[in-house]
Write a structure and sequence with these properties.
- By secondary structure, the protein is α+β, with helices and mostly antiparallel strands.
- The protein has a single domain, classed as Alpha-Beta Plaits (2-Layer Sandwich), CATH 3.30.70.
- Helix content is 37%, strand content 37%.
- The chain is built from 2 helices and 4 strands.
- Strands 2-3-1-4 form a 4-stranded antiparallel β-sheet, with helices on one face.
- Strand 2 and strand 3 form a beta hairpin.
Length: 94
């Protein structure tokens, strides 16, 4: 049975000096997620806040085990991003 998984991270950007800088950092991260995992990704909150963002990813996998493996890889990529720090992560299984 197919599974839909949604991951949402609250991110902070220490040292970020402008919205343009924050958006460039997010754009780079979103592009890497799309290219590597073929997922839907968007900034879903705090668009006009200089040092914060909520990044949300959604994808469909053929089963729950596969969905969790993919989610772990996606989370690792976000956690390892040098310019953004994860403050919270939320996972939803649909």
């Amino acid at each position: 049975m197919a599974r839909v998984l949604i991951l949402a991270w609250e991110l902070t950007f220490p040292g970020c000096r402008s919205l343009k800088e924050k958006r460039a950092t997010l754009r780079s991260l979103k592009d890497r997620l799309r290219q590597r995992f073929h997922v839907s990704v968007a900034e879903t909150a705090h668009q006009d806040v200089l040092d914060r963002a909520e990044l949300t990813v959604a994808f469909v996998a053929s089963d729950g085990s596969q969905a969790e493996q993919i989610a772990d890889k996606i989370d690792r990529l976000v956690q390892e991003s040098p310019a953004a720090f994860v403050t919270t992560l939320r996972r939803e299984r649909v």
